[in-house]
């Protein structure tokens, strides 16, 4: 698919394709052409030109999402290209903008917004080397620290210290880049480039370090907070977090696995849960909540009823919800607003079929993403599922891997899915008849890959043919056996893997020591 380019854009491409000529000629370029030249340079991966454009940026703001998004001159959105060459040139250009010896009075730049960059699985850039969120965090922090050292040592233009640029970024901090980010945040006041954290993700970090760095980010600006892998945050820590820090603009909250476990609740814990719910109720902007792999049986109402704003996204996968929880969700004011819902890991047909379909009917007019993985949906439930999904005309994504469905049932379901006009992404299970007879669900990791590959390929081909014959080539259908693509996990999997091995080794050593003492 080719995207039409205006004559202006074609001219811009021709101009930047000769890097040496373009760099020499920038001084004669009209200021309002800089955004056009930036997008053309980004498309052609002209790193040196990108660097010089940013170093001499003549406008008040530099917004990556807008600059790379669809424009009249070139409709294609390039914001999902996290090309390492382009992004590194961009950030080093920003550092050199500050150091450039031209008169500070000609420097108008006040805001740089890097939050519009989208990390996706498939990259189209020629260099094939990406710079993910973690690496962007690392590089910006490094450049801020270098800038301060340089300004302290060198005899810069006196006006350089007056430059103040807010750099809006989604920070991603792990143990490996923690010290560097902390240093950059601590020295924010004296650095011309001021890191403004809009979204914060934390993986593989001790609680002490997490609490320290979250205070440095200026939580009053934070819109999204993700505390994900290997941060051992439990309900008592969450209560301390909410009592000591206010998040007035927080719109999205992701909590790590096992934050809540009602099976070992005392009376004091029940009160603590109420306090956490009330604190979340004070976050008037909160519309997205993810609490997967916590045990919340019978407590969803206590946690969610204090919220003043209806949720648009709710992930309660593998949270051991009971009928009372599902009944609350179906009848709550959240139901009519849910655009994304994840109920994976619950035996929906067995536990609360009618209540689930009531919830689905309430959110059907707005629902865009539905995830029902490992929900024991069988062939006998497919007709009911089709009936429930029929009103969901805005559904863009449907994920249901891990369900015991036959290839025949999948074909029946796919024939219906073709009728959903907005659908773009489907994640379907390996058909039950591709596995050995007697396989039990949910399938354990050891047995997950033990299926007839050739038969699966044949079925997948038939399912894609159903889409093709219905003119639905726009729908991507796949079977990610080990879960959907996660850009953050992909980027830091070596660190996470090393951490898990270390934890396993320590556990093994403790066990061996205890065993030896017993002997």
TrEMBL record:
UniProt keywords, alphabetically: Leucine-rich repeat, Repeat
Keyword Ubl conjugation: no
Gene that encodes the chain: Lrrc14b
UniProt keyword DNA-binding present: no
UniProt GO cellular component terms: cytoplasm
Protein family (similarity comment): Belongs to the PRAME family. LRRC14 subfamily.
Listed name of the protein: Leucine-rich repeat-containing protein 14B
Upper lineage: Eukaryota, Metazoa, Chordata, Craniata, Vertebrata
PANTHER family assigned: LEUCINE-RICH REPEAT-CONTAINING PROTEIN 14B, SIMILAR TO PREFERENTIALLY EXPRESSED ANTIGEN IN MELANOMA-LIKE 3
SUPFAM superfamilies according to UniProt: RNI-like
Protein species of origin: Chaetorhynchus papuensis
């Amino acid at each position: 698919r080719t995207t039409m380019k205006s004559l202006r854009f074609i001219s811009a491409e021709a101009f930047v394709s000769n890097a040496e000529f373009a760099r020499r000629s920038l001084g004669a370029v009209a200021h309002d052409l800089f955004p056009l030249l930036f997008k053309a340079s980004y498309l052609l991966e002209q790193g040196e030109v990108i660097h010089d454009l940013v170093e001499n940026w003549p406008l008040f703001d530099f917004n990556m999402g807008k600059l790379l998004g669809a424009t009249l001159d070139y409709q294609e959105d390039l914001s999902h290209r996290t090309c390492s060459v382009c992004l590194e040139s961009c950030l080093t250009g920003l550092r050199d903008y500050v150091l450039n010896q031209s008169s500070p009075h000609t420097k108008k730049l006040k805001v740089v917004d890097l939050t519009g960059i989208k990390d996706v699985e498939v990259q189209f850039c020629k260099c094939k080397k990406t710079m993910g969120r973690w690496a962007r965090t690392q590089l910006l922090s490094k450049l801020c620290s270098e800038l301060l050292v340089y300004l302290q040592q060198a005899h810069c233009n006196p006006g350089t210290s007056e430059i103040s640029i807010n750099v809006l970024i989604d920070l991603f901090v792990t143990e490996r880049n923690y010290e560097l980010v902390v240093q950059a945040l601590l020295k924010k006041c004296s650095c011309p480039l001021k890191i403004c954290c809009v979204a914060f993700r934390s993986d593989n970090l001790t609680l002490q370090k997490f609490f320290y760095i979250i205070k440095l980010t200026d939580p009053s600006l934070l819109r999204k907070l993700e505390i994900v892998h290997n941060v051992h945050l439990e309900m008592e820590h969450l209560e301390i977090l909410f009592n000591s820090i206010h998040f007035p603009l927080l719109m999205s909250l992701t909590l790590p696995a096992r934050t809540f476990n009602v099976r070992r609740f005392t009376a004091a814990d029940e009160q603590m849960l109420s306090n956490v719910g009330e604190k979340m109720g004070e976050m008037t902007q909160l519309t997205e909540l993810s609490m997967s792999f916590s045990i919340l049986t019978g407590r969803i109402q206590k946690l969610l009823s204090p919220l003043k704003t209806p949720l648009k996204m709710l992930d309660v996968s593998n949270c051991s919800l009971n009928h009372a929880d599902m009944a609350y969700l179906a009848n709550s004011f959240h139901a009519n607003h849910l655009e994304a819902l994840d109920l994976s890991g619950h035996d929906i047909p067995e536990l609360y079929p009618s209540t689930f379909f009531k919830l689905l009917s309430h959110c059907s007019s707005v629902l865009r993403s539905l995830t029902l993985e490992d929900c024991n949906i069988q062939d006998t439930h497919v007709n009911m599922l089709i009936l429930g999904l029929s009103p969901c005309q805005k559904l863009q994504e449907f994920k249901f891997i891990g369900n015991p469905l036959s290839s025949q049932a999948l074909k029946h379901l796919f024939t219906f899915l073709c009728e959903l006009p907005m659908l773009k992404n489907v994640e379907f299970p390996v058909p039950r008849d591709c596995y050995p007879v007697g396989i039990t669900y949910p399938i354990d990791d050891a047995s997950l890959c033990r299926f007839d590959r050739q038969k699966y390929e044949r079925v997948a081909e038939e399912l894609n043919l159903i889409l093709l014959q219905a003119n639905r080539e726009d729908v991507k259908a796949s079977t990610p056996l080990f879960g959907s693509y996660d850009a953050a996990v992909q980027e830091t999997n070596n660190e996470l893997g090393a951490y898990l091995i270390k934890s396993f080794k320590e556990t093994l050593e403790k066990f061996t020591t205890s065993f030896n003492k017993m002997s």
